[in-house]
Structure formats: C-alpha cells, structure tokens
Design brief:
The structure is a single chain. The protein has helices at residues 3-7, 26-38, 62-73, 89-103, 121-137, 165-173, 186-199, 219-230; strands at 14-19, 42-47, 75-79, 107-111, 141-144, 157-160, 207-214. It has 233 residues and is an alpha/beta fold. A 7-stranded mixed β-sheet has the order 3-2-1-4-5-7-6, with helices on both faces. The chain is globular, with a radius of gyration of 17 Å.
C-alpha cells in the first residue's frame, strides 16, 4: 500500500513534474502519476525542450505525443523550447519558478542527479536547477529513476504500479517518435518495473522507484492513516 498517496486522497493537491524532454516523465513515473491522478491530485508536467535534437527520424511530434500520454495518465502539460544540450540552470530555474507561481505544487518530481558521464547532460542540468528551486521554496522533492545507468541513484521510496501497468505501457507507447530506442521497448519497461519489485523482495507486481530528497507531512497525513486503519478494526 502506498500510504503517502492514499493518505492524501482527501485533499486536492498538485504535483508538478519537471523534465528535460517529453517522454522523460512517463518512463520513470507514468504509473505513479496515474495513481495520483486517480486519487484526486492535479498532475501537471513541465517539459523544457521540444525534442528537436532527437535521433529519431520523426521530428516535431513530441509535444503532441505528450498530450496523448497525458490523456492516459490524467496529466496536463506545459511546454518550453529551451535549446537542447545547451540550456542553463538559470533558464530552468526561471521557467520552474514561473510554473510554481501558477500551480502552487505540493510536490515536485524531477530527474535524479547523475554525473554527466553516466547520464544525459540535460537531465543533470535540470536536476540541479529544480533542486535549487525546491530547496529555496521549501517544496517536497522526489527524484525519479533514470531509464538507464542507475549509478548514483539510491531509491528510498517505491510505488506499486501493478494496477496501472497497462496504462504506463500505453502512455510510453504514445511516443511513437522514440519507439526505436531500447529503453522504450516493452521488455525493457517490464524488466525495470520487475527489478524494483525484486529490490523490495516482491515476487510479483510492478513498481516505480524514487529517491526522496525533501519531504514533510502535516497532521492530516497521520489523521488519514488513523482513519484508514479504523476501517480494518
């Protein structure tokens, strides 16, 4: 049972995800975002670039594909066109702060910080910038798992997405322009989701993993747990 998500289902809260490229949001977190949407959260995804430097032969479709994925996981999107492989932390800070001003999120999810030799340069810059903003504004922050090269990622929070694994697969499938990449393939998606289950000692099911960087809970969190427990007395 994902206590954090269920305990907050009585409030209309907002999660803001900030990712460098469209598809970065669904690969590590589509299941979790779908569950959050189903429990009443506003799910808003900020995408920094337009994907124009992708190796895919299909150009100019990433934002449209994201909108289709959003319909599946219950998310709305906000798109920017920062220059891929060249945007600065200052640029990310600016757009993130503006989005926070509009959405007043209760939680932010972004890339996990990784050394550039292991991860994508854009992911690393995004992680540094968003971490800066979340720290200064005292907003809870989760890092999601990298799709490849897990070096340096130390998850301490796992979400059972078994009930929405088909939705995760469908959301990732919306990104037809990226379907040639190995980590977008069905077997890769399922293997990684099962890997996190095995990390927890679970024989069955599918999970997503996060590293909680900043988190806090209010009194309502414990009240909701207490009320939930009473249902089983």
């Amino acid at each position: 049972m994902n206590t954090y998500l269920e305990a907050n289902k009585f409030d209309r809260r907002t999660v803001l995800t900030v990712y460098a490229h469209a598809d970065d949001e669904v690969l590590p977190a589509a299941g979790t975002l779908s569950l959050m949407s189903k429990t009443g959260w506003n799910v808003h995804c900020l995408i920094l670039t337009d994907g124009s430097l992708s190796s895919s032969s299909m150009k100019g479709t990433r934002h449209q594909e994201a909108e289709e994925a959003g319909k599946i996981i219950g998310a709305t999107y906000e798109f920017h066109a920062l220059e891929e492989c060249n945007f600065s932390t200052q640029a990310v800070i600016k757009v993130t702060e503006a989005s926070i001003g509009r959405w007043q999120p209760d939680l932010i999810i972004t890339h996990a910080p990784q050394p550039e030799k292991y991860g994508h340069r854009d992911h690393e810059v995004c992680a540094i910038a968003v971490s800066n903003v979340a720290t200064r504004k005292n907003i809870p922050l989760w890092y999601s798992a990298p799709p490849v090269f897990l070096r340096g990622f130390e998850p301490n929070f796992f979400v059972d997405i078994t009930s929405v694994i088909e939705e995760k697969i469908a959301a990732i499938g919306c990104y037809e322009s990226e379907s040639n990449k190995a980590f977008m393939q069905l077997d890769a998606i399922l293997v990684l989701s099962r890997f996190w289950a095995r990390e927890l000692g679970q024989r069955n099911g599918y999970f997503e993993a996060f590293e909680i960087s900043r988190q806090w809970v209010d009194a309502g969190f414990f009240a909701a747990i207490a009320n939930s427990n009473k249902l089983y007395i």
